[in-house]
Amino acid sequence: MKKLNSVSIFFPFWNEEENIERVVNNAIPVAKEIADKWEILIIDDGSNDKTLEKANALAEENPNIRVISHMPNRGYGAALKEGFENAEYDTVVFTDGDGQFDFAEVKAFVENIGNHDIVIGYRKKRQDNLVRHILMNMLKVWDRIFFGFWFKDIDCGFKMFNRKALEEISPLRSEGAMITTEILAKAKRKKLKIKEVEVTHFPRQYGNQSGANVAVIVRAVLESLILWMDIRNKRI
């Protein structure tokens, strides 16, 4: 396996006190294996449990770990933007902080990022409930109609970018779940090279999902319509 010169890894967390230590500690040996220089950013999106406390403890133990926290909770997109904006190295990768991915599978992303601008994961078998499966398929159709693209798994929380790609798609405006649609819509307009890579998805062991929350869905629809209007009017 080839090795990266450097990589910024970040995880968005919101009330993941039961997952954060396992997710971060599992990533450390992988980071050492895939890159000469590395950092891990813990993005705390206004958690009201012990997530931030545990994040700070992890950072005290390892100088390669940094904590970025904001209050109050702003949303998934806001957490991703914090990660992108604070990443120091030329390759940037994130996975969700809920423990449903095996970060060691990032090696397949590393193998492909040299020939692509963005590498995105798709879940071989999505371990979510029926409602989330329905929402995922609705999102695929929505994005096909409004933005003209089709990927196997648009909202998979496992993606890698080179610095050029991040510069091309910035600034990002979505603060909620439509951040992934915005990323891919802008990447398509910029004609960036995107590679899809299969990843394993595990059932959530601890904590609660918020993606099927009505408020989250309404916010996503509104952000998507704003994005569509911006693209149609060539504002981005």
SSE layout and pairing:
Layout: E1 4-13, H1 20-34, E2 35-45, H2 51-61, E3 65-70, H3 76-86, E4 91-95, H4 106-113, E5 118-123, H5 130-147, E6 158-162, H6 163-169, H7 179-189, E7 194-199, H8 214-232
Parallel strand pairs: 1-2, 1-4, 2-3, 5-7
Antiparallel strand pairs: 4-6, 5-6
How would you describe the overall organization of this protein?
- This protein has eight helices and seven strands, in the order βαβαβαβαβαβααβα.
- The protein is an alpha/beta fold.
- The chain has a seven-stranded mixed beta sheet with strand order 3-2-1-4-6-5-7, sandwiched between helices.
- β1 (4-13), α1 and β2 (35-45) form a beta-alpha-beta unit.
- The longest helix has 19 residues, at 214-232.
Summarize the structure.
The protein has 236 residues and is of the alpha/beta class. Helices cover 42% and strands 21% of the residues.
Number of helices: 8
Characterize the largest beta sheet: strand count, sense, and whether it forms a barrel. 7 strands, mixed
Order of secondary-structure elements:
EHEHEHEHEHEHHEH
Tell me the Rg in angstroms.
17 Å
Low-confidence stretches: none
Question: What topology, given as strand order, has the largest sheet?
Answer: 3-2-1-4-6-5-7
Could you give the count of β-strands?
7
Overall geometry: globular
Strand content: 15-25%
Q: How confident is the prediction overall: mean pLDDT?
A: 91
Q: Based on helices, strands and strand pairing, what is the structural class?
A: alpha/beta
For the termini, the CA-CA separation is 37 Å
What is the helix content?
A: 40-55%
